[in-house]
Amino acid sequence: MTQVFNFSSGPAMLPADVLRQAQEELCDWNGLGTSVMEISHRGKAFIEVAEQAEKDLRDLLHIPQNYKVLFCHGGGRGQFAAVPLNLAGSAGVADYVDGGYWAESAAKEAQKYLTPNVIDACTTVDGLRAIKPMSEWQLTKGAAYLHYCPNETIDGIAIDETPAFGDDVTVVADYSSTILSSPLDVSRFGVIYAGAQKNIGPAGLTLVIVREDLLGKANIACPSILDYTVLAKNDSMFNTPPTFAWYLAGLVFKWLKAKGGVAAMDKINQQKAELLYGVIDNSDFYRNSVAAANRSRMNVPFQLADSALDAVFLEESFAAGLHALKGHRVVGGMRASIYNAMPLEGVRALTDFMQDFERRHG
Ligand code: PMP
Questions:
Q1: Where pyridoxal 5'-phosphate is bound, by residue (predicted)?
Q2: Protein residue with least CA distance to atom 2, ligand 1
């Protein structure tokens, strides 16, 4: 089979080595004669898998001891509800920074549980979409927390600044589409959450990293399966966790460690993004509408100057083994998602194709 590169935004490409290992041990995991997804989550064998995955994740992100790592259900959108249900306390207000589609969606969901003070962080720089620096965000005094999304998967907008608002501001971040892609100072955050289906593993698993002093404050109406305190007390096994996704995430963490960890990924991700944005910027045929400082290294949306060619581009790219390049319906155009599992050669295959397409259709 010819090599296919999958640019899907999520569920997204997984490392080929990981898939091969999962395939090899699918029917007979660890000499047990069954697959890992057929054994009890409470048995010793699975608990070892679960603990090892957590340990590897802790190593990769240097997660401090005073943080719990939760392996949950419910996806990013589940956390849009879980965050206010766990953290609102008596404040009744939380700050929500609006930098794109997902941040806005989080604020909308939170509205069911508290009053979100929406901080519009969007601006333009030379006509390109940008995010105001954190120093210009107008925080609300007494707000329960500040929520933002460091990587907007649809808009292709990143906020790379490290939050430094002081100890009395609890920062919550939706890292769904950028976790493990570059180093991250966990200690600056109260809660970090991420759906697994982009940089971690298959859909169905959601990671939550929560500082311990934030536990014990959940709203009485918070469903137990979303309650950080209940999940922490039960080692994420209050109910049956997504065991296969947890196992596979563990394989991805091992793969990441073998590749040199998050710092090594950061370097490759930088190279991949520079290559792709370079081709876009050096042409009048393609364009990206995000200012340089806020360009995502994970999700690269781009438009063809002549949108009448969109369908041809998608058809030809698919035939060339470059899959899932169609932009999100709310943005249109194209989008290449280039998470950790996408190798540099995949991005090179895409840029070669783009340049060839331009020569033939430009
Ligand atoms: N946040 C971000 C940044 C996302 O990209 C997504 C999904 N693409 C979500 C939240 C929602 O995640 P889920 O579909 O797992 O609920």
A1: 76-77, 102, 153, 174, 197, 239-240
A2: 176
Against a cut of 0.95, is the pTM above it? yes
Could you tell me if the CB of 109 is within 6 A of ligand 1? Answer: no
From the CB of 358, is ligand 1 less than 6 Å away?
A: no
Cα atoms in the Cβ-side hemisphere of radius 13 Å centred on 265: 27
Whether 325 and 220 map to the same domain: the answer is: no
Active site residue 254: no
Q: Which atom of ligand 1 is nearest to the CA of 79?
A: 16
- Along the chain (362 residues), what's the average pLDDT of each consecutive run of 10 residues? 86 97 97 96 97 98 98 98 97 96 98 97 97 97 97 98 96 98 98 98 98 97 98 98 98 98 98 98 97 98 96 98 95 96 98 98 90
Measured at the CA of 213, the angle between CA 208 and CA 218, to 5 degrees, comes to: 70
- CATH number, domain at 120? 3.40.640.10
**Which residue in this structure is represented by tokens 């990587």?**
151
Closest Cα partner for 244 from 202, 286, 273?
Answer: 202
- Name the residue range of residue 78's domain: 17-258
User: Do residues 183 and 58 share a domain?
Assistant: yes
Using a 6 Å cutoff on CB, does residue 77 contact ligand 1?
yes
Residue written as token pair 């949950």 = 72
Q: Measured over all CA atoms, what is the biggest interatomic distance in the chain, rounded to whole angstroms?
A: 62
Say how many Å lie between the CA of residue 195 and the centre of ligand 1: 6
Quick check: is 217 in a domain?
yes
ipTM of the complex: 0.99
Shared domain check, 167 and 23: yes
